[in-house]
Amino acid sequence: MSVKLVISIIVLLSVGTVSISLSIRQLVNSYMLQRTDSQLLQQAELVFKNTTLLNDTKSTADSNSFVSYYVQAYDSQTGRTYQLLQPMYRDGVVSRPMLPHDGGLDGHEIAVPYTTPAVVDLENVKGQPDHETMVIAQAPWRVVALRWVSDSANGTIEPRGVIYIGLSLGNQIDMIDNLTRFCIIVGAAVVLLGGVLSAITVQRTLSPLKRIEKTAAKIAAGDLSQRVPDAPEGTEVGTLAKSLNTMLAQIERSFRQQQTTTEKMKRFVSDASHELRTPLAAIHGYAELYRMQRNAPGQIERADDSIAHIEASSARMTLLVEDLLSLARLDEGHGISITDHIDLGSVIRDSADDLHALDPERDITTGVLGLDVSEPDHLRLSMTPGELPSVMMVADGTRLHQVVTNIVGNIHRYTPADSPVELSLGVLGLDMPLDGLTSLASGEESLQAIVGAAARFTVTQHGMMVAVARFTDHGPGVPPDGLTRIFERFYTADPSRARQKGGTGLGMAIAQSVINAHRGFICATESPGGGLTFTIVMPLAPTKRRPERARGPAVVGIMLTAAGLCCMRGLR
């Protein structure tokens, strides 16, 4: 592209220089010709009347540099032509215009100058004339024809003939040729200098594009971390570099997300296979044991134990398959209907009562959740003890009960029965778009961003109203790196303990899918003093869920669900 640009600039400079040179040549030529015509017309009578004087001033040298006019007269009374004045060039070269000898005009008009060829006479030339003299001598002449009149005896003016007065155009043509050569030299210098400067300018201007080209080559080789060097803002290259960097960041982020999704899918398939293999192996083993014991004397009780183990394993596999099917339906955008008018406070109160019934010794504290602005540099959510408020919202009541039940059920299963629990609920305003919650990752930083949006809402009063529910326990909690993985499918901080408690590792993944379907946000953080805190934020206004076709884990989940159901039917 740089070569094409330089060639285009050189072509434009050449065309412009040639056009200017031709224009100057034509303008000067016209101007000089006009001056010659004016000189002929203004001095014709003076020259004609002083031909004798001009002839007398001729020197005896071979040339007459003072006389430049040619004068010829045709006398109609005698029919003869007289050469009244003849200029002579160097070395005796004689040049005169080609004129008629009969007083004719050859189609020209009286007192209107015209151009005629030259006739060169070399009879009196001594030696070989130089080239410059011959060029000037062969130049055409500019001639004007005038009426020749004389006074008669009775005082009247009588026509006598025609007078031709001419000036050679040799000097004018020589000046035009010199001017043309000068324009050619200057034009060539301008084109050459312009080509060099344009090459340097184009190279410097396109250097950012060359850097972009090198960066693109590295990206094509697989290095997605490369970025285009920044260029000055407000320029086309700067805008292009900024757009490319934004696009590259999105591509890299999408690629990393795709890699993460692929890894999650592989882990999902592996974990799902493992989780399904365990109850299937137990069912298969106890079925064989039952077949061996059913006809043996005195083994009826042990055969009943085998049947009980088979029922327990099939129940566990049924629960696992139901969770997989639920996740698959949520990933496909089905299995949820956000049309119920429910009281979120009542849902949490029912779960608190259930937890109290399961763990009578546990201290359960409820209250109203709000924004604590007592420390402007450390904004946070705080609970005021008291009754849970009633918060009406449009949601899927069954799924929302499932979310709260999963969270409270984990508290019952994985925390000591006498450890305290705080359940709180409140309504806050957030200065963010309606879909802003769904774009947040489940983590402490996103929760702080929500708290900051709540603080801004107190000033701007612009945004949306949300329900914020918080479930805080003081149990063993999870490792710090597990806080970001707690919503992954089949993730458990202690797999053996989870299996003993009857967990499948899908409860929190289902909870996150349900909350996301409500255009909400859920995260897990460490409780003050130890333990785990779940925070749920959901818009109070109803939102229409857009169907999202999931791939990978959802499809695998459906396949595993079908396989599990088939196995169950085979056992029956």
Automatic annotation (TrEMBL):
Keywords associated with the record: Kinase, Membrane, Phosphoprotein, Transferase, Transmembrane, Transmembrane helix, Two-component regulatory system
Organism field: Bifidobacterium pseudolongum PV8-2
Localisation per UniProt entry: Cell membrane
Transmembrane spans: 179-202
EC number: 2.7.13.3
Catalytic activity, as annotated: ATP + protein L-histidine = ADP + protein N-phospho-L-histidine
InterPro entries, per the entry: HAMP_dom, HATPase_C_sf, HATPase_dom, His_kinase_dom, HisK_dim/P_dom, HisK_dim/P_sf, Sig_transdc_His_kin-like_C, TCS_sensor_his_kinase
Molecular function GO terms recorded: phosphorelay sensor kinase activity
Ranges for domain HAMP: 203-256
Residue span, Histidine kinase domain: 271-542
Native organism taxonomy: Bacteria, Bacillati, Actinomycetota, Actinomycetes, Bifidobacteriales
Keyword Membrane in annotation: yes
Annotated PANTHER family: SENSOR HISTIDINE KINASE TRCS (PTHR45436:SF5), SENSOR HISTIDINE KINASE YKOH (PTHR45436)
Cellular component GO terms, alphabetical: plasma membrane
Main location: membrane
Leader sequence residues: none
Protein name: histidine kinase
Entries under Pfam families matching the protein: HAMP, HATPase_c, HisKA
